Amino acid sequence: MKLLFINACIRDKESRTLSLARNFLSKYKENNKDVEIKELVLNDEKINPILNTSLKERDKLIKNKEYENKFFSYAREFASADKIVIAAPCWDYSFPSILKVYIENICVLGLTFKYNTKGNTSTGLSKFSSLLYITTIGGYPCDKTYIKNIASFFGNGKYYSVYAKGLDIVGNDINGIINKAKKRLDKISKVF
Questions:
Q1: What are the Cα distances from residue 74, in Å, to 100, 139, 174?
Q2: Are 10 and 45 in contact (CB under 8 A)?
Q3: Contacts of 135 (CB under 8 A, 6+ apart)
Q4: What CA–CA distance (Å, rounded) separates 45 from 41?
Q5: Minimal CA–CA distance to 124: which of 106, 138, 137?
Q6: What is the CA 123 to chain-centroid distance, rounded?
Q7: Do residues 8 and 136 make contact, with C-beta atoms less than 8 angstroms apart?
Q8: Residues 128-167: tens digit of each pLDDT
Q9: Burial tier of 37 (Cβ tally within 10 Å: 0-12, 13-18, 19+)
Q10: CATH number at residue 58
Q11: What residue numbers bound the domain in which 61 lies?
């Protein structure tokens, strides 16, 4: 079984989100000895945004069904993963931009999704049975729909999310918030 861990935690070792994700992965590995975890550290990747030139190249490759091209390596990896964990902090009401750039790169017609013959509905082609989104938030507001919508766009797997909120609010019990998130993740690790 292949688990793809998409690490969009820009602060690396200082990241509370990454700490929660590592805790989850450790618990999950305890319960699933056969799992092969592939970590994709977006900080270390040379992922480029889709711009005019690359859009034309991508469209041509898709038209010719050249899915084995290196341009689609991230999309192939995502589409073939059995389980997916995405860890990204909430910044400025969203997540770090590198995650959006990654998502643009895996959004490949014919590889991660397809349209019906009329072109008015899509079906996910990615095989993941579960996708977990882990995030931490200094305050309270953050978009809770984008990753969930993307997950359903790419596949039919079960969607889980854990949001540890209010971590930078003076007076909040930070350890209590983190421990509550860990407990939720521990429960998810048994059914994920």
A1: 13, 32, 35
A2: no
A3: 17, 87, 88, 89, 90, 95, 142, 161, 162, 163, 164
A4: 7
A5: 106
A6: 18
A7: no
A8: 999 999 999 999 888 889 999 999 999 999 999 999 999 9
A9: middle
A10: 3.40.50.360
A11: 2-191
Identify the residue whose tokens are 């993740």.
185
- Per residue in 65-118, pLDDT (tens digit) is 999 999 999 999 999 999 999 999 998 889 999 999 999 999 999 999 999 888
Residues 182/20, Cβ–Cβ less than 8 Å? yes
In the block, residue with structure tokens 């999950």: 28
Cα–Cα distance, 134 to 118 (Å, whole number): 36
Side chain identity at residue 185, one-letter code: L
Token pair 């991230």 is found at 74
Token pair 């909120």 in the structure block, residue: 165
- The residue with tokens 């407990």 is 183
36: tokens are: 């092969």
Amino acid at 66: E
Q: Does pTM surpass 0.85?
A: yes
